[in-house]
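Job type: complex structure
Entries:
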Amino acid sequence: MTTPDAHPQPAARPRLGVFKFASCDGCQLTLLDCEDELLGIAAELEIAHFAEASSDAAPGPYDLVLVEGSISTPEHLDRIRRVRADSRHLVTIGACATAGGVQALRNHADVDEYLATVYARPDYIATLATSTPVSAHVPVDFELRGCPIDRGQLLEVITAFLAGRRPGIPNHSVCFACKRRGNVCVTVAHGTPCLGPVTHAGCGALCPTYGRGCYGCFGPAGTTNLPALVPLLHRDGMSEEDVGRFLHTFNTAAFAAVEEQGPGVTGAEGAE
Amino acid sequence: MTESTPRSRTLRIPALTRVEGETALHLRIHDGTVLETRLAIYEPPRFFEAFLRGRAHTEPPDLTSRICGICPVAYQMSACRAVEDACGVAVGGQLAALRRLLYCGEWIESQTLHIHLLHAPDFLGHDDVIGLSRAHRGHVERGLRLKQTGNAVVELLGGRAIHPVNVRLGGFHRTPTAAELRPLAVRLRGALDDAWDTVRWVGGFDFPDAECDADFLALAEAGTYAIESGVPTVIRYDEPFTRRTFPLRDFCDHVAEAQVPHSTALHSRLDGRRHLTGSLARWAVSGHLLSPTALEAAREAGLGDPPAPPGAGGTGRGSACRNPYRSILVRAVEVLYAVEEALRIIGAYEPPPHPYVEVPARAGTGHGATEAPRGLLYHRYALDDGGRVTDARLVPPTAQNQGAIEEDLRRIVQSGVDRGEESEAGLTRLCERAVRNHDPCISCSAHFLELDIERTPGSGGPAEG
């Protein structure tokens, strides 16, 4: 029943590019941690550019580009524009690319003083005073959150891309995942401070499952009422300063934006 | 990019691949002599040591894990040890055993990642693991399976493989039940064969001749292969039978950043000398304390016996391995050991009465060092009496190894040039292999950032290269 016409040679596989800016490599590594799926992904997508994994770096354009890391040096400003120009679909992966990452803690500090603290010759270091998300500089098609991203969510993004549909990444808070997992609420039962009510789902409510409060590594959920949570954190023993540090860690810029906006829907959810 | 005159050429390799993080290479060759080989790390600064100040003493383990996605457990363990040291708390018993188990998981997954996905393609002539999998699918599948086993250990104890959430000062947020560890043991028993087969596979690779002349620095611990604790121990290149130790609190007096003349490079030096941490150093310092199975595998794979000081439980024979290409073999042996060690810990596990010991804050300075897969990782924190961090110092392995890696590069490129290797592609391949031999973790070492600046002789000042 097969004829060459009925089963034509598959078209060239879509080309994948993976690019890194200021980051720890953990989100790219999530791709290599898809041990069961890695060779399958390579069969569906041509891995055209992935410096951490391959010495064969092919030039663009790329059909799907995953960007890890925040924009934090003058060179990044040019490079992210070049990467965008080479990308048909650009997806940011992780807290750094999506919200500036932990290095955005510099944004409200004196970077010159930071430089002098860390480097013997600060004058040799080229850095920006801020660490910003990719979306502050170029259009982004989808933002995948997390510090680090979740392997299942990454596979969903890749699958959705291959199927030509929007990724099914829920926008709700960690509390939903926690209930679904059947956890006892650490705040209600133990008075443990927890950012679960205001944090974007994706990790599978890991921290409460291990008996600790969520520390917000996926950034703010789609709708949050941060002001309503703060008194609860105080009740559970956190000072004003503790709450400040709690919110200002891995997604400091994103939570700061929610604090400024007050309750409601947070910033753009990429292509959603 | 190459610039050349008839006698001189400068070769810049803009981006090294299959390494963690971003770095470039700069070579200067004059009259057939390699004058300079410089790793130019352009990984952007992220200022961890600066923004750790003012954070609570409970925070460094979670914060510093974000320095590196490949060895987050190493950061968490060195941070815990340093803060606990500052607070006068020692964690022992089953909690310490569980920490070692977690660390074994990271060793298995990180070393396996490096062996199969990043390094083996060099020995077998492929650009990446995908190319390798077309020619050697079974070996790649075995590597992925082993890596998954390592990840499973970290996931069970830590919650997730990258940036685990379950580690805290004094132990864990939640400790596993013995029943939860049982499926892990089944999986690890299966991994024993995979780990042994990996040693055999790697033992069959073709290893170019090379020898590094750096001093070795690794932690040593009585009676066991040091992973999550130990005393800094030095074996000097010129005194292979002498071991020196120094107290961890003196680490920064011995391992110091030094300005290299006519270069912007900051290199760590050990008592003013070039040194190397990582698999080769551990094999030299603690190899005789590996398990009988791991030692047998090492022998079978051609690594021979590690140096064993008579009277320290050793055989009095054996030798250090100084060929950086063969570090992949030591890594494979360490994976086998880590699988066995994980099984041993699970076999002896009894859930501790409490998942952690309290670590009350107090003013003080604490030091912590552990063996990250790629070498010794040192942390120091100063705390005020409220437990706020007032000063943080992190010395990652790759920053320490940078001088030895550059010297390796010089030697390896020189012998390439002597053999008549002139092509940019050929030299690039040589250099990339030489760097990958050390499994560098460049995100970790970014605060030892060095820019790619070419100095014009006599001009005195830096100019953009």
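Summary: The CA atoms of residues 2 and 8 of chain A lie 10 Å apart. The longest strand of chain A covers residues 62-68.
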